[in-house]
Design goal:
2 helices, about 60 residues, single chain, mainly alpha
Amino acid sequence: MKTVAQFISALALVAILLAAALFFTDRLTLATTQTWLLGATLAWFVATPLWMGRKAGK
């Protein structure tokens, strides 16, 4: 489970960078870029806490 969550987190970060780069080169519209960024950000915020857990009681 931890490995899957790490993979999803990394994939989300790549998607964020890719969306920005494609928008910068005029290959994506603003609306499409915003959709990509929103989806990737949500995926990152859901997946990352699953593998970056904190110790109990802190």
